[in-house]
Amino acid sequence: MLKLGVLASGRGSNFQSIIESTENGCLKGKAEIAVLIVDKEEAFARKRARNHGIAEVWLNPKDSPTKDAYFERIRDELNARAVDLVVLAGFMRIVRKPLIDAFPNRIMNIHPALLPAFPGLHAQQQAVDYGVRVSGCTVHFVDEGMDTGPVIIQSAVPVAPDDTEETLSARILTEEHRIYPEAIRLYAEGRLSVENRKVNIAAARTPQSGFTNPLPGN
Ligand code: GRF
């Protein structure tokens, strides 16, 4: 079973969709959440963890002398819990080298735009202001840049002329909750590989293709 370490800063609705997927959805029997780590004491995601009996830890950035030291702390916590895949779910910090080096192509993030369009904060407002007709969300592996790592899955949604940041965010969020667990599932099934910043998604192994499927439910 793949062990997930989730990092969050706030509301945690993506965290919730991942919890539910492990309990009753596409991640059931394939992945489990080993720990939630938050950088903000008041993060609502902590309550979600407690509601589901998931270990949660607040690591206060102020306790670390440098940003790198903070990410060393996170790395050590994840390693102590034997985490295989790190999942950023609304974690409002740029991940630093100590964590990236410890989990190469083993950190995922979700961004509420079709990258490389509208990286950074307020992606949905950026899309509204720009006047695009289509936006969406992207699950990607994390590198040292801001929202620059290899793209795993994207989903597009229409942008209406009268959309606001709020209405567009809500439409995109529905898709976030759908594709993030799917991306984790592909990882859990060992189907993702990265070459020259491109993510290859291997076909599911089915009995018809001559393989025995070791993973139930496919
Ligand atoms: C989501 O829009 C996600 O794409 C972005 O931060 C937001 C987090 O929302 N990275 P939530 O905490 O998962 O509800």
Topology:
Layout: E1 2-8, H1 13-24, E2 31-38, H2 45-51, E3 56-58, H3 67-80, E4 85-88, H4 97-102, E5 107-111, H5 123-130, E6 134-141, E7 151-158, H6 165-188, E8 192-195, E9 198-201
Parallel strand pairs: 1-2, 1-4, 2-3, 4-5
Antiparallel strand pairs: 5-6, 6-7, 8-9
Bound molecules: 5-O-phosphono-beta-D-ribofuranosylamine (GRF).
5-O-phosphono-beta-D-ribofuranosylamine binds near residues 10, 111, 112 and 176.
Class of the largest domain, according to the CATH hierarchy? Alpha Beta
Bound molecules: 5-O-phosphono-beta-D-ribofuranosylamine
The helix fraction, in percent, is: 25-40%
CATH evolutionary superfamily of the largest domain = Formyl transferase, N-terminal domain
Distance between the termini: 16 Å
Number of domains: 2
Question: What summary fits the major beta sheet?
Answer: 7 strands, mixed
CATH topology of the largest domain: Rossmann fold
Rg measurement, Å? 17 Å
Parts with pLDDT < 50 across at least 5 consecutive residues:
none
The CATH architecture of the largest domain can be named as 3-Layer(aba) Sandwich
Give the beta-strand count: 9
Count of helices? 6
Shape: globular
**What's the helix-strand series?**
EHEHEHEHEHEEHEE
Question: What's the mean pLDDT score?
Answer: 95
* Class computed from helices, strands and strand pairing: alpha/beta
Query: What is the beta-strand fraction?
Result: 15-25%
